[in-house]
Structures are given as structure tokens and as C-alpha cells.
């Protein structure tokens, strides 16, 4: 079993509550040549909110009062030594998050920093709190253009057949639950949104919804706290609670869903309920379980479905730990549907029966620890990992996560396997017949 080296030190996030209620998290490190500032606006997950959040993320990146066009905004970013400013939306459990991220070159790499971070934060704040408006609401031409962009994004999902299949599986598996919502919302919800409606929605988010800001880079904690206190000083009421959502659900019957599209390769997705919330003591056992099952090239799915049986172009598993879901994804020939399904289900059954070799267990622990250490080399990945802990009232340092993985036994993994229940079998294929789904 791999132990932590004496020289391993995981940089920690330190917290500070700004006067307007924004939660600041600062990681001081000399590891990166950049400074990353990432803000997250939290919202309840549903179709209407997801659509408005996605549209808002497109509108915000069009510019600000001081940079009212994308060309001027790009010029200002270039003047900040090629800084980047990005927006996006995603879901974590049953909440939706709008992200605004700024990446700047670290000031210690500049001969004349000239207040680079402060200037970058001023632009960041402008984009967030002073977007381009006309007659007190969002510009109509910008809104119309971004509606078209969002519409194409949603319609374009079908072009990524793997992602489309996973999205459809989630829709069917979580029907009636907020998690069924696509992160960009629905096409039919776009058109009714007016410039005035979206602007009022935007103002409500800033005033009342939870906001987390992460800063990662070579700057001391107090400097970061003072700078963010000065730049993100807009008034807020706060107080709106956003629940993480339910992570447990009893399954009474396995759903079986088949869609037909023009695909060269069938997409088989199996959805499971882990019934293990993020706060559960079995969280790390679940992570190791997933690693043994299908997260790595040495995992059961890869070796038995792809390598030995040659039935799949890929066969992997992944977790959604906030919602308590596990998905197995594979790309197969339609004629191999039943054989592939049988072998996949056999691997899941082997896990529950405790048929786990010492080699599988050891290789998975090593791979997970290596993965966590690599996460420390990516500000974005580390921020998202820590954010998930915050959402679930269990923020974890990398060192705590590694120690959690090290502490998992084979008995823990077997116990976890007994808690996981199949929910949905989804198959996307182009054949008229693949046999009866059972």
C-alpha cells in the first residue's frame, strides 16, 4: 500500500468572508506561472434556470461598460499580457453553477508588474457587475445573437453521440428529478426570454444567490483578501439557500430505453444509484470501487469488455458523487449489444461478490493517488474538486483525499458494491433490431 512521502505538502485553501457575503478561498502556491481567479454563482437546477444561466454566460462574455464589444474586451485582455476570461455553466448535484474565470500571468514573472492583478480584477468586476446594457437592460442585438448561439449549442449535442447518449440516459434515469436537466437548458425555453427578464434574473443572482470566489497563485492570503474586498464590493442581500440535492433513491425496476439515430457505433450506457452521499464514510470506498471497475486501463471493464472480448471501442465508468450516481459507458457494434451487456453486468456482479484481485486493488490505489497529485498541477481541476466538497459541507484537501484512499480496504470496496443498484440501461443505435432488451 502506497504511503504519503514525507516531502509531500498539499497547499490549502484559506477562507475569508467578504463584507457583502461572498465567500473567498485562496490557495497560495509558487507552483504555477499564472494567477487564476474563478467565481461561481450558485442556482437551483431546473430547465428554466439552466437556460437563463447559459444565456447569461454568453451575454457576460460579450463585454462590459468599459469594453462594450468583444473586440475591445479582447484588446484589454491582450494588454494584460494575454490574459484570458471565460464563462461557462455546469451542474454539480442538483444545483447549477455559472462560472467566470480569469487567468493572468504571475506578477513575479514580469519585470514591471504595474499592478497587473489589480487591473485584471477591475476588468473581471466590470464584466461581472457592469455588463453592456441599453435602456437599462441587456442589449437586444446581443441577446438575439446569443440566443442563436445557445440554440445551436443545444441542437449540436446530437453531433457528439457519446455525450448525447449519456445526456439521454440521465434524462430517463432522473426523470422528475432536477438532475435530469441538461446543463445548457432546453431549446424551447430560449425564445420567451426577453432582455428585461434576463436582466432582472441576473440582478437577482448577484444580489441573493451564494457566490464563491477562488484565487490560486503566488500571492499572500491578505493581499488577495484585500484586493477582492476592494474590487467585488457591490451590495448584496444574500440569504438564498441552494440545496445540494438528494443522493439516495430506491430503485423498484430497471428502466430500459433504446433510441435510434444515424450512428456508426452504438452507445451503451448503464446508470446506477450508489446510494452513497458525499458525506458518507464510504465515499472513498466508492472512489476505489469505481477505479477498480472502470476508471483506468487496468480496470475490469477495459480488460474484459474491450481487450479480452473485443466487444467495445471503449468501456469506462465514472461517478457523480454529489448526486450519488455511477455511469458505465461503452461504444459497441449494435450486433454485440447483448454480449457486451452481459459482460459488463458480470463485472459489476464480480465486484459485489468480492472477486477483486490484490493486483487490481493495489494498481487502483496507486492510480488514484497519482491522479490526485496530478490534480494539484491544474488550478481548475483543484478548484472544482474543492468546490464539490464545499457544496456537500465536506471540503477536503488533496492530502485528506489521498489519506482517505489509502485507508480503503478490500472489505470496504465489497461493502460499497453491495449498496450500488442498477437503475437504467440506455442504448443508442442505428439498427432496426438488436434483439429484445432485457
Short key terms for the protein model shown above:
single chain, 438 residues, alpha+beta, Cytochrome Bc1 Complex, Chain A, domain 1, 2 domains, six-stranded mixed beta sheet, five-stranded mixed beta sheet, 13 strands, globular
Q: What strand line-up does the widest sheet have?
A: 1-2-8-3-5-4
CATH topology of the largest domain: Cytochrome Bc1 Complex, Chain A, domain 1
CATH architecture of the largest domain: 2-Layer Sandwich
Query: What oligomeric state best describes the polypeptide chains here?
Result: single chain
| Relative helix content | 40-55%
What is the string of SSEs from the N terminus onward? Answer: EEEHHEEHEEHHHEHEEHHEEHHHHHE
How many independent structural domains?
2
**CATH level-four homologous superfamily name of the largest domain:** Metalloenzyme, LuxS/M16 peptidase-like
Number of helices: 14
Residue fraction in strands: 15-25%
Mean pLDDT: 93
Approximate shape: globular
CA-CA gap between termini: 41 Å
Main β-sheet description: 6 strands, mixed
Total number of beta strands? 13
CATH C-level class of the largest domain is: Alpha Beta
